[in-house]
Specification:
The protein is mainly alpha-helical. It has 14 helices and three strands. A three-stranded antiparallel β-sheet has the order 1-2-3, with no helix packed on it. The longest helix is centred in the C-terminal third of the chain and has 65 residues. The C terminus is likely disordered.
Length: about 525
Amino acid sequence: MSQEQNADLLNWWNEQSFVGKQLFKLEENGEIILCANSNIKERSIAKISPENADTVVKNLVEKFAGVEAKVIEMEVEWLATDDKLKLADKVVSVKEFLHHSNALGDFEKLALLVHDWEHTIYTLSQENYEAKLKLTQLAESLAESDEWKETTQVFKDIADRWKLAGHVDKNRNDKLWNRVEAARKAFHERKRHHHEDNEKDMLHHLDLKIDLVEQAEAIAKSEDWKKTTEAFHRLTEEWKTIGHTINKKNEELWQRFVAAKSAFFDKKREHSIKIQQQQEQNYIIKLAIVERAEALQESKEWNATTQAYLALKEEWKKAGRVPQEKADELQNRFTKSQDHFFEARRQYTEAIRMEQENNYKLKNALLERAEELKYATQWGVATGEMMNLMEEWKKIGPIAREHGDKMWEDFTAARKYFFTRKDEYWEQRKKNEEAQKAARIAQAKDLVVRLEKDIKEEEEKLADFKIAIENITPGKKAAELREHLEKLITDGERQLKRLQEKFAQAERDLAIVPAPAKKENILQPE
């Protein structure tokens, strides 16, 4: 980016406002950085440019709602859980999620919340850690012990006490347990060498079998069926590889081993029976779900039935497994009913889509005609057609939402443009006629005034001619003068009559107000 673009982008950034903005900074290269503090690691969130800045920031602000929702979900579970240590791994997961989420918002508030959870878990697990640390130190102190039997029992006790010590985070727990295992292995290795050095192979075999028995007895109550079954198979194979030992002890150990093994497999068999019974119950539940699904497959209530199928899917998931031999049939019936309904819905939706596309074409044709008519000057014909276009528009069904309201806005805009032009035309015509009317009235008034003046002058001339006739002096030219004056009087009277007629007509014209122009008899827009 140029320096000018950088400056514009920085100015734009300074004008932005969103929750948690104080935690972020914008670099000159357009990179948005989440600044580090005691609970937040510094990292790059996004890189923006003047062209995409608004869109990117808006999306990142919206994305923060999802980040916040995940933390709030964890908070709800935290508040509802009495044993906080059970949530340790989830808290770690949420923390990692926060450290890798690219969004814009108040990360500090969320990070503080996670920090409080971590602190609580650390405090609660510290006592457990101290207890396991003491067991670890005890095991390490016994690694060099020569008290073979007693120490073997102590190591068994350490393992039992370890299980009861409570939760410690996996990292520290594994480190301590590895130390215990290292000490135990070191002890047993020394113990084995001791028996070898003393040529006590039988006792060595005895120890190995004791170890196997203890392992068997330790897992006899386990409910991790698959893992423990594999463990017993492994222990049995190991037993076969161990040589003979003292007969009495060998039989005693074997009976203990068999008893532990039988106890586990008896429990496993009981568990299998319960599972089978539960699966039969689940079958009844799922069969009812299938029947409800099949009852819905012909429904035309598309939205309600879609929601109903979604609800049935949730019930199906919660119902659990059914006997294997019945699972496929149930699943196929359930899937078939859904497929039948959703295929019908798809066909219906496709028909609606095609109808909307056709409506779009029809309305587009009306819009194009309205765009042509908006420039028309044949007001009556064009107005009638505009009104017909509106009636046709009303008869056409809806169009797809993707087209929005633009087509309707363009259509009404074309109508408005036409009717505005028409109103402007008649308004201008009215103004012109009024101006013409005013001009005619002014001319008529001027004519009346001028005629009044001409009539008065003509009357004065006639009066002078008549006086002159009466005062003619007798003489040679008296007759000629009289004849001339009489001709002037005759002409003047004719002229006076013409002027009086014009005057009367001018007064009549002045008294008549010209009627305004009438608009054509046309329909008005709605």
